[in-house]
TrEMBL record:
<keyword id="KW-0963">Cytoplasm</keyword>
<protein>
    <submittedName>
        <fullName>Segregation and condensation protein B</fullName>
    </submittedName>
</protein>
<dbReference type="Pfam" id="PF04079">
    <property type="entry name" value="SMC_ScpB"/>
</dbReference>
<dbReference type="GO" id="GO:0051301">
    <property type="term" value="P:cell division"/>
</dbReference>
<keyword id="KW-0131">Cell cycle</keyword>
<dbReference type="InterPro" id="IPR036390">
    <property type="entry name" value="WH_DNA-bd_sf"/>
</dbReference>
<keyword id="KW-0132">Cell division</keyword>
<dbReference type="InterPro" id="IPR005234">
    <property type="entry name" value="ScpB_csome_segregation"/>
</dbReference>
<dbReference type="InterPro" id="IPR036388">
    <property type="entry name" value="WH-like_DNA-bd_sf"/>
</dbReference>
<dbReference type="GO" id="GO:0051304">
    <property type="term" value="P:chromosome separation"/>
</dbReference>
<keyword id="KW-0159">Chromosome partition</keyword>
């Protein structure tokens, strides 16, 4: 093969390849004696400064988009993240019962609370650590954030819907007990101590681990 033929063949192979190719990979597909190295050098020089360039990474060659044009390939889309039923129930309990402990959340729901549920709510900035309850074990308490109010278009926690509003919206069973009431999150709460800066900076699993260990010791 002439140098021009070798260069064209190498160019075609690199464009058609699903991934990077080494000089040895290319040589195996070309007639014996083809000067693959020279062809690669010529192609690299030819494509220098163009929209597509010939790069070598880990001794393998590949055509790639020029780095300065990478912004053209980026597409930004908003994908609303849906909360699971467990996350919505947990968020509602925290909103109405705050400040509330993990154990209290589980008592209201009647099932255990997975770490992933709280992680998601924390990640979305819908809940935060509030403090430590002045009770045995000093459990951490949770509350909602300003982002929670913004998300649900609420001026304040006092504007959370009550029992009558929930019934009107079809969110409550009409057969609920007559003494059923919706907690008022803006009312008087159990006394708690604020978390220290060190505690707030620690990963949350440390908080839960300590709470669990202390509860086991009682």
């Amino acid at each position: 093969m002439t140098h021009e033929e070798t260069e064209r063949a190498v160019e075609a192979l690199l464009f058609a390849a699903a991934g990077p190719l080494s000089a040895a990979d290319l040589a195996r597909r070309l007639p014996e004696g083809a000067e693959v190295g020279k062809a690669l050098a010529a192609l690299k020089a030819h494509y220098a400064g163009r929209g597509v360039v010939l790069d070598i990474v880990a001794d393998k060659w590949q055509f790639r988009t020029a780095i300065d044009l990478s912004y053209l390939m980026i597409e930004e889309r908003e994908e609303p993240r849906k909360l699971s039923k467990a996350a919505l129930e947990t968020l509602a309990i925290i909103a109405y019962h705050q400040p509330v402990t993990r154990a209290e959340i589980e008592t209201v729901r009647g099932v255990g609370l997975s770490r992933g549920t709280l992680d998601v709510l924390h990640e979305l900035n819908l809940i935060k650590l509030r403090g430590r309850r002045r009770s045995p074990g000093r459990p951490v308490t949770y509350g909602t954030t300003e982002a929670f109010l913004e998300q649900f278009s609420l001026p304040s926690l006092a504007d959370l819907p009550g029992a009558s509003e929930m019934r009107a919206a079809g969110l409550l069973d009409l057969n609920v007990p007559s003494d059923f009431f919706v907690p008022d999150p803006s009312g008087t709460k159990a006394v708690e101590d604020a978390l220290t800066i060190e505690e707030l900076e620690q990963p949350e699993f440390h908080q839960d681990f300590f709470e669990f260990e202390e509860d086991r010791g009682d």
